[in-house]
Amino acid sequence: MQHIPDDAWNAWTPELLFQRFRYQSSPWYVVGGWALDLWQGYQTRDHEDLEFCILSEDIDLFRSQLPELDFFEVHNGTFAYLAPEMRPRPETYQLWGADTTNACWRIDMMIEHGTPEIWTYKRDPSFRLPRSTVVRETPSGIPYLAPALVLLFKAKHIRPKDAADFQAALPKLHVQEKADLQCWLEAMYPEHEWITQL
To answer: InterPro entries in the record, alphabetically (predicted)?
Structure first.
């Protein structure tokens, strides 16, 4: 299998992914920076990758809809080719989709261990919410994770792009979203610098 450097991204857009999955009834949704931009209604910055999430039980289903890609397990910074007939290891939460013909990465597929009705936070499986409240849609139908939860994921590391995403989102978050995010941060990262800004 051809080696592709981990920074060789030429990611698809959410719109292109939606064209692949538009008739798919199983849950999927865009996460990360692109989710915030879908919520904003315009692109606020460049995105090197395209992250989206599916349920663990649906991995084979979604892989079959992306036949042009080869998949690699990503775990602790290492990559391992995942043959089409193989299932990822239980501890794997991330698969990168490689376009080996063009020697680049196209998608970052996250694995969620919830159910079609219940969304589960991967860093704390006891944190669960109704899926209907955490997945939203753009006017054209692209599903994405609610902004307060995207920011909760970003709060762990606060890279420069995460800080920029927080500042861009803050004016648009409504009162309940700010209160929810503040509550989650106080529970998980009690000294977090974003708490006072909320």
So the answer is: Aminoglyc_AdlTrfase (IPR019646)
